# Entry
Amino acid sequence: MVETSFDIELIRAQFPTLQQKVGKYPLVYFDNGATSQKPKVVIDRLDQYYKLENANIHRGVHYLSQISTDNYEKARKSIQAFINAKHDHEVIFTSGTTDGINLVAQCFGTLLEKGDEILITELEHHSNIVPWQMIAAEKGLLVKYIPLLENGELDWDQLDELLTEKTKLLAFAHVSNSLGTINPAKEIIKKAHSNGTKVLLDAAQSLQHFKVDVQDLDCDFLAFSGHKVFGPTGIGALYGKEDLLNEMPPYKGGGDMIKTVSMEKTEYNELPFKFEAGTPHIAGAIGLGTAVDWLSGFNYNEIQQYEDELLSYATEQIKTIDGVTIYGEAKNKSSILSFLIEGLHPYDIGTLLNQQGIAVRTGHHCTQPVMDHFGIPGTIRASFCFYNTKEEIDLFINALKKAVDMLK
Ligand code: PLP
# Structure
């Protein structure tokens, strides 16, 4: 992989969306936690696919089908390299993190028995809570959780007590989307394994910020979304260890996931196809392959250092505004700044920021239990990416001051 130089102007020039204005204001995009913008190389790749390569995969002998199949499988290898999976068939294409977690909940869930326990945390996105509650209701499982502390870290000291001989799976976010907390994944996974508990890591908010190596972490499953790592929407991947994926039955039936079908019975296909029923998002997978190849060209240490600087600068600046409360002050934190301003509704602030070209997210960020914990309805969240700049933070702080003056 060729290392790309970390030149912020050159990086920004690759993103057409970032060149726009909102009315008379330059667009300042601080909603990266929700989705990232797309570099031209990804947009061009999708264009090329639909212009020159479009065909259904795996079942065709003709020229286009072969090209399309080759590129789809090449994308799988790109993702394998990106997360350092041992085998490419341990990478299952999904529609995103939510889909990956639901797959594990349903398929791993069938291996569980009444009374078995799933451990999650109070910090999770709804997509790492609801699928477990659904399978728990269906199978008579118990869902327990690691509680949140006031600074936005999890109370991992309770892990030993919460892990029992019945805890079959621990599922937690690598990075919190609403508070930015980075969880000590490797250490936690080791502890869970010493209890015989499998681990699913929700990597929706981590891969775009730092290197994630599934073999080094030793997680059993890892789910992520393409659209948060500069790829298209509607595509993502689930990593699973080979033996576990082989043990699990599929939960979606249809084309491609079978070896043979008769009117009496079906023999399932091998990995990874067993879990990829129907025509997949071929263009999306190829675009995601391009996105992770592009991202892999950067030095992650430089990305992390730069984003840390953005976060420190924004945190310092926002503290100069009267009545600001920051939610999430973990020691190890990703570039997410969640806050409220005393007496003002987050939605009103978001609307006034938007009128000045600043895109932030307001609300509960699909983490209602986190909001309940702090006794608030939601926050204003500015989430930074390495294509953002300190100048944009200055524009944001000035716009925020203006908004506060107008509302107070
Ligand atoms: N998990 C976390 C931590 C997230 O931040 C998100 C999305 O914001 C998800 C899961 C769900 O991702 P998706 O909607 O792409 O499936």
